[in-house]
Write a structure and sequence with these properties.
The chain is α+β, with helices and mostly antiparallel strands and about 550 residues long. About 30% of the residues lie in helices and about 25% in strands.
């Protein structure tokens, strides 16, 4: 397969990275300078509140919003009677000054391995599954109020951006990704990514890591990118990570909380580091300064592939040149057309994402059951692609076209599983429910692409619907009846949208005149075109011309 990575930074406020595969847009990453991105950053924070009822602590780490630290994300070195001593918490994880040290044990079991190739959250969770052996420290986590106290300092890493009123999610399981390795202090041993399933490759990597003799007290996980890499390449990556960790430890001990300790690379370096493979034949960048940064990184980490980086010097915009502007625009549409005439409809709600598969004009020459099966196979592949492109997370409910045969249901489930394999986010897919729904979850790290680019409509407040002119006129008349109970109102002005005013003046003229005669009140309906369709403002005056409160 032919892959290309297109990096568009011609607009200084926005960076867009598109990954093409055989001419099809498979992945899209968008980041704006106006949006704070904390995931992967490491901070020295201070505990500001302990909540025993939810076994969590809130941490001030210096960004304006407190972070959320759950007991499951508290590293065992913090288990100390009477609180935490930050000067000693990571003492065993500080890298040695030289490269000497006893060889660490390489754990190759599925239970001890982690997936180090995902995002920050996946790395943190995998670290939690591979806790270092810490002598006689307790295996069962004690209550958080016995571990941490208000005012304690903790070294934390952001693993998930905040959503709405929720602050960022934090973890004390620190992980620092390199190109081929992930440093996980104080893991204390070396693991191999579970995505590397070839036993020969695993054995070779184990031997290389034993020969490199990582310093005692630090741990590494070999990423899938480390497959078929030489000992020199692995050593260079290890040296870089150890040097970075030493600087982090020095900064942690030098400054008081809250303070930032380490910031993740910008999106260009991050994406090249995490997404570049031998299948990527070319990386195109359309901005000279960004090109120089990427070139320096490649020459430092992957000099062999530096020639694949190119600067787009043409006058035609890079994304437009590949015909992707229209494709990117379709990402935000609710309805996605499929080959053959079908479609999928994606609705994002507060609690979940609902995806409905429609057959449309899709037809085969076989039975209706076979027709539904073939349509669902196409839809499964497109659903996986759209989830990546839109960066949708949380609970996802897929309503495929009903199929009665069990083997067809299993076939669609397998197609969805296979299509989701290339997704870097952690996913879990359940079997088809009795109602024909396939429920799944996808890891949510940051707000979806839609939430990053759009805001809720101030007119409909995000519902997509507003009241009709008839509904508003009924509401006006109902409120006027309330004014009849007041004896201090002599004149009443009603300001509404033009369409509502026209409806009232044309269809409610007789009721308005009768109302004026009965309650002895002057009524004026004012229509404005520039206001919301649901705009409704009353202004009331008494007989002395003084403004009174109504309703």
């Amino acid at each position: 397969m032919k892959q290309e990575m297109l990096i568009n930074v011609s607009q200084p406020e926005e960076c867009r990275i598109a990954i093409m595969e055989d001419g099809i847009l498979e992945e899209l990453y968008v980041e704006r300078t106006s949006q704070d991105n904390y995931v992967g950053n490491i901070y020295k924070g201070r505990i500001v509140n302990i909540e025993p009822s939810i076994q969590a602590a809130f941490v001030d780490f210096g960004v304006g919003r407190n972070g959320f630290l759950h007991i499951s994300d508290v590293e065992p070195q913090y288990y100390r009677q009477g609180g935490l001593d930050p000067d000693k918490a990571f003492e065993s994880a500080e890298p040695a000054s030289g490269r000497s040290g006893e060889p660490v044990a390489v754990e190759a079991d599925g239970d001890t391995e982690g997936d180090a190739d995902g995002d920050a959250d996946a790395r943190q969770r995998s670290a939690a599954r591979r806790r270092p052996r810490l002598g006689d420290r307790p295996r069962v986590k004690p209550p958080i109020q016995d571990i941490l106290r208000r005012g304690d300092e903790v070294l934390v890493q952001v693993i998930k951006e905040g959503f709405g009123t929720k602050g960022p999610t934090l973890s004390t399981y620190i992980s620092i990704p390199g190109r081929y390795l992930v440093l996980m202090p104080p893991l204390g041993r070396v693991g191999i990514s579970k995505k590397i399933d070839d036993e020969h490759d695993r054995r070779v990597l184990r031997d290389i890591m034993l020969e490199l003799k990582p310093p005692k007290g630090v741990g590494f996980v070999v990423r899938t990118a480390g497959t078929e890499r030489t000992k020199a390449e692995m050593a260079r990556d290890m040296t870089y990570l150890l040097r970075l960790w030493k600087s982090i430890v020095r900064r942690m001990r030098k400054y008081s909380a809250p303070i930032d300790i380490y910031q993740e690379s910008d999106m260009i370096i991050r994406t090249i580091r995490d997404m570049f493979t031998e299948d990527v034949g070319r990386i195109l960048i359309d901005e000279p300064a960004a090109y120089e940064r990427a070139r320096e990184f490649l020459e430092l980490v992957m000099p062999k592939y530096a020639p694949r980086l190119q600067l787009n010097e043409g006058k035609e915009p890079l994304i437009h040149r590949y015909g992707l502007e229209e494709e990117i625009g379709r990402i935000h549409q609710r309805k996605v057309p499929l080959k053959g005439g079908g479609s999928i409809v994606i609705d994002q709600t507060e609690a979940l994402v609902a995806i409905d598969v429609n057959s449309g004009s899709f037809r085969t020459e076989k039975s209706a059951e076979e027709n539904a099966y073939q349509m669902n196979l196409i839809a499964a592949k497109e659903i996986a692609r759209q989830l990546r492109l839109r960066d949708l997370g949380g609970v996802i409910v897929n309503d495929f076209i009903d199929m009665r045969r069990e083997r067809y249901r299993r076939g669609v489930e397998k197609a969805l599983h296979d299509a989701m394999k290339r997704d870097r986010a952690r996913t879990k897919i359940l079997r088809t429910s009795p109602f024909g729904l396939v429920e799944m979850t996808r890891q949510r790290i940051r707000p979806s692409l839609r939430k990053s680019i759009f805001r809720d409509c101030p007119t409909c407040t995000g519902t997509g619907m507003v009241k009709t002119a008839e509904s508003m006129s009924i509401e006006v008349m109902r409120t006027l009846q309330l004014s009849a109970t007041r004896g201090d109102i002599a004149r009443l002005n009603v300001t509404v949208h033009d369409e509502v005013a026209t409806w009232i003046n044309n269809r409610k003229r007789r009721e308005m005149a009768q109302f004026e005669d009965v309650v002895h009140m002057q009524l004026h309906v004012v229509g404005r075109e520039s206001v919301s369709p649901e705009h409704l403002v009353f202004e009331a005056w008494d007989s002395n011309g003084r403004l009174v409160r109504f309703p």
